[in-house]
Amino acid sequence: MNFDDGSAGDANYAQIGQGYARYRRPEPAIAARIAAALGDAKTVLNVGAGAGSYEPLDREVTAVEPSATMRAQRPSRLSPAIAASSEDLPFADNSFDASMATFTVHQWQDLAQGLAEMRRVTRGPVVILSCDPALLGRFWLIDYAVKVIETEASRYPAPDRVAELLGGARIEAVPIPLGCTDGFGEAYYGRPEMLLDEGARQANSAWSFLSEVEAASAVAALRTDLESGRWDELYGELRNQPFFDGSLVLIVSEPNTLN
Questions:
Q1: DSSP-derived 3-state class of residue 90
Q2: DSSP state, 176?
């Protein structure tokens, strides 16, 4: 794989990743769940690290990211990321106390190999933040951009499958807060106007699988319903709902949970 071409998995981040860090900022409530799952680990590997969201600042973190565009967006407070893929981690066995991967496993070319590599280089917990494809239909966007939801559902592996490949894991639902600062799709469950923003959509890779015509049609339909009040008639209560039980899950594999 050519790690200088800006691509990662099935999405081209040289094209869609330019403003990623502006919209995909770590959500404190989610960060706290990840930190708890990492336990007392002092050394942490972040696989598919992107721009560095959710990397703990109080531990020694080694980041791996194949996209040059994403590596370039890492803030100066974080260490530079190593150009490598999940399927071929350049580390010895049991190199890290823990490892993590957030919103990335659906991009990997070989899920089984990537997870095996994470388990190989990790002494303690392996922590995966992902989405359950079976639950994506809970999000109202399915009424406007069904292809976005279908694309996501076809890309994300089932949490049970991830757990199986890790040799055993617990799966925790992660409620999404109303003001979620990490702009993945469901983060806007109560702020639909945000998805009229091209930058917000571009920070969600599933939108890149739509043609310009398909994306424009979806946005126009949402804008029309917001202006007419129809969206609020159907979903307005979400504007004040403190949490949304969507598809977000945390998958945690620890040595004492392995089969």
A1: coil
A2: E
